[in-house]
Design a protein that fits this description.
It is a single chain. This protein is mainly alpha-helical. Helix content is 51%, strand content 1%. Strands 1-2 form a two-stranded antiparallel sheet. The longest helix has 39 residues. Bound molecules: protoporphyrin IX containing FE. Protoporphyrin IX containing FE (HEM) binds next to α2, α3, α4 and α7. Protoporphyrin IX containing FE binds next to α2, α3, α4 and α7.
Length: 303
């Protein structure tokens, strides 16, 4: 059979590309509209009562989390402390394997009280980046460590992937630095603390990593991930120590966001912007100088 003519293949490809792009944009617009509605509903109705944030009948309801079992050899874990903690408590499969994207949305919603819009948006983004279907496909936790998908350089609690490709490893010295950085009451973390920490990490990663990259979207992911420590965890040092050093939920812990519809992207982005826009190293020349210093030393070629 002869090959189809170039014009036919090219037209089909352009049409498929265009439809998929428009479909993606339409989904995003819908998600943002629903998010706006949930944001308004949250303003209008009272929050859940303290002690009743995790819905009745779900793991963690009333602060009773299923037993914590650290990962065994062969279990899949990843760069995200929140997903690892769910697997360590058996809320996701303890093996960390064969998780349906759709199911991830449901359990993230119940466990952390993020709004359904966020719980759809992030796993759907991850599925698209991995070229899988959100509706039908599954993943192992380690799959989401695909570099520069969501995982990126200059993270708060992981060394860069070039230094250690196993992104499930907790970088204890980095975690300890986060835990010492709080300037709020009781040493709790504030947005300014996280801007400072992220700035510091970006500069040191850029100096040390000859393949350092941080696109706009990854800067935004970096400050979003960091902002969960301020919102869902309320910046509380006491809880963050257990969560970040062991990827375990502290006894009786529950999300600090108590809105009925959960934490919407609209409300969350308020914190994310405070954190990202407060990173002075992005504008005072320090980050730029870090790259020049590295190449000036010639260490990339000399390594
Ligand atoms: C909804 C599905 C989620 C996916 C697919 C996901 C994915 C990821 C990935 C790939 C990273 C690594 C980013 C990096 O290189 O630093 C990450 C980091 C992180 N995530 Fe998640 N995540 C999810 C939900 C959550 C939730 C619900 C929370 C908090 C309640 C959370 C908190 C964090 C934190 C604190 C980090 C570490 C940030 C850092 O080291 O800079 N994530 N997540």
């Amino acid at each position: 059979m002869s090959d189809p003519p170039f014009a036919l293949v090219a037209t089909k490809r352009l049409l498929v590309g265009l439809l998929s792009f428009l479909g993606g944009q339409l989904v995003n617009i819908l998600v943002f509209l629903v998010d706006l509605v949930l944001f308004i509903v949250n303003l209008a109705i009272p929050d859940r009562r303290i002690g009743h944030v995790v819905p009745h009948g779900h793991p963690g309801a009333g602060g009773k989390w299923p037993a914590f079992v650290p990962p065994k050899q062969g279990d899949s874990r990843c760069s995200c402390p929140a997903l690892n903690a769910m697997a360590n408590h058996g809320i996701l499969p303890h093996s960390g394997r064969n998780i349906k994207f759709k199911e991830l949305s449901a359990v993230v919603r119940q466990t952390y009280n993020f709004a359904p819009t966020f719980c759809f948006f992030v796993p759907n983004y991850a599925a698209n980046m991995l070229n899988r279907s959100y509706w039908t496909d599954s993943f192992d936790l380690a799959d989401i460590d695909a570099h520069n998908c969501i995982e990126h350089d200059g993270s708060l609690v992981r060394v860069d992937a070039i230094e250690d490709p196993d992104q499930s490893k907790i970088a204890i010295p980095l975690v300890e630095r986060v835990l010492r950085a709080g300037s709020g009451p009781n040493g709790d973390l504030t947005p300014a603390d996280l801007s400072r920490l992220l700035g510091q990490r970006r500069v040191e990663a850029k100096k040390a990593n000859g393949t350092f990259s941080l696109a706009f979207i990854h800067r935004f992911f970096g400050s979003s991930n960091a902002s969960t420590l301020l919102t869902i965890f309320g910046g509380r040092l006491q809880d963050l120590r257990t969560f970040l050093t062991e990827e375990r939920f502290p006894e009786t812990w529950e999300p600090r966001i108590r809105h009925q519809m959960g934490l919407t992207m609209m409300e969350f982005n308020n914190t994310v912007l405070k954190v990202e826009l407060g990173i002075r190293e992005e504008v005072d020349g320090t980050l730029q100088a870090a790259g020049q210093e590295r190449y000036g030393l010639g260490s990339k070629k000399a390594d």
